[in-house]
Amino acid sequence: MENREKTVKLLESFLSDKEVDGVCGYMVDPDGEGPIQVIVVLDIDYIQEANTKPGFIAKMIREGVKQEIKKWLGLDVYVGSTAKKCENKFISESMSPHVRRRLDFDVLKQEINNIVDYEISVSCDSPVGEFIGEACDMLNERVLDDIVASTNVKVSLKEKDELYFYLVDTFGNYLAKKYKVRCADTISESKKKYVVTESQYNIILESQKHIKVFQELIDNEMSYIRRVCEKGADDYEGDVGDESCNQIENVEKVIVTDADWVTVMHSNQPLEQKYMSIKLMVYFSSIRRGDFDADDLTYDLERIIRKKTSMPVIINYESTNTNTSFEW
């Protein structure tokens, strides 16, 4: 097998189970000539409903796919995108037959309507992602209870998770529209009160993957800072300070431990503002006891992420020394 064919198959295998919100699929090496490229097929409905610039969403997704390929495969390939109406996602064939046969769309839709109309309250102060998650979680439990009652077969945790994400994929947009209809007045008012716009909520909150999203961002920016420091921070127009380069030398990894919205009232501003609060655990290695000073490093991380995402971000951190042998 020629090297090009091997590389194409490697990319296809890697992307085959790569699920990203708003992505229908991937095309690897569609031309079969020139540099190998990956084309991300975006869901045009997802883009149109995101309430933000389509180009921004496409760029973020392309960059994420490119970084994942480089991180795990070591391949620096061109990643482009196209858009189309995606077919409905179907649950994996690995799901047990006694689960799949109970997934009649019309029945499930009626159940989700009953849940929304009669069983849960819509809190317009909470993000739409929480509303979607609660409704799908209740439907998930209802399907599982029905399976156990009728078959005496227990569903595995893996199948339970897969069923939940299937329900989110299937009814997420439908539930989001119901939420917006009920909360239209509240959402309109919140846009006057808060810095964060609905498009920013959609990017982070609807995904229900706060920690995962920001962990990928932190990993990417830590790699960027290391590259800058290797070449000299002074050459990069103040993106990274000298002290950050000194601090990052002792850092082994940075883990996002929490990420959620917080409301802050500033003494010099009349209205509340919402920020994404990101908490980090900085793992470092030092022969000296005591806490690790990563103030400059986390400040630069916060500033870079704000610039790239246009989101209000606050970063706080704790530190853990991985070294067990100390010198005084």
Kindly describe this structure.
- This protein is an alpha/beta fold and 328 residues long.
- It folds into 3 domains: 3-84, 2-Layer Sandwich (Alpha-Beta Plaits); 97-193, no CATH class; 211-321, no CATH class.
- Helix content is 52%, strand content 17%.
- It contains 12 helices and 6 strands.
- It has helices spanning 3-16, 44-48, 54-73, 97-100, 105-119, 128-151, 157-182, 184-193, 198-204, 210-231, 242-248, 295-309, and strands at residues 23-28, 37-43, 78-84, 251-264, 273-284, 313-321.
- The strands form 2 sheets. A 3-stranded mixed sheet has the order 1-2-3. A 3-stranded mixed sheet has the order 4-5-6, covered by helices on one side.
- A hairpin with an 8-residue loop joins strand 4 and strand 5.
- Helix 6 crosses helix 7 and helix 11 packs across helix 12.
- The longest helix is centred in the middle third of the chain and has 26 residues, at 157-182.
- The model is unreliable at 187-198 and 203-208 (pLDDT under 50).
Uncertain runs are 187-198, 203-208
What is the number of independent domains? 3
The average pLDDT value, as a whole number, equals 78
- What's the total count of β strands? 6
Report the structural category: alpha/beta
Indicate the radius of gyration in whole angstroms: 23 Å
Residue share in helix: 40-55%
Q: Which quaternary structure do these chains form?
A: single chain
Strand content: 15-25%
The helix/strand order is: HEEHHEHHHHHHHHEEHE
Question: What is the overall number of helices?
Answer: 12
Shape: globular
Q: Could you give the distance between the termini?
A: 58 Å
Largest sheet: 3 strands, mixed
Give, in spatial order, the strands making up the sheet with the most strands: 1-2-3
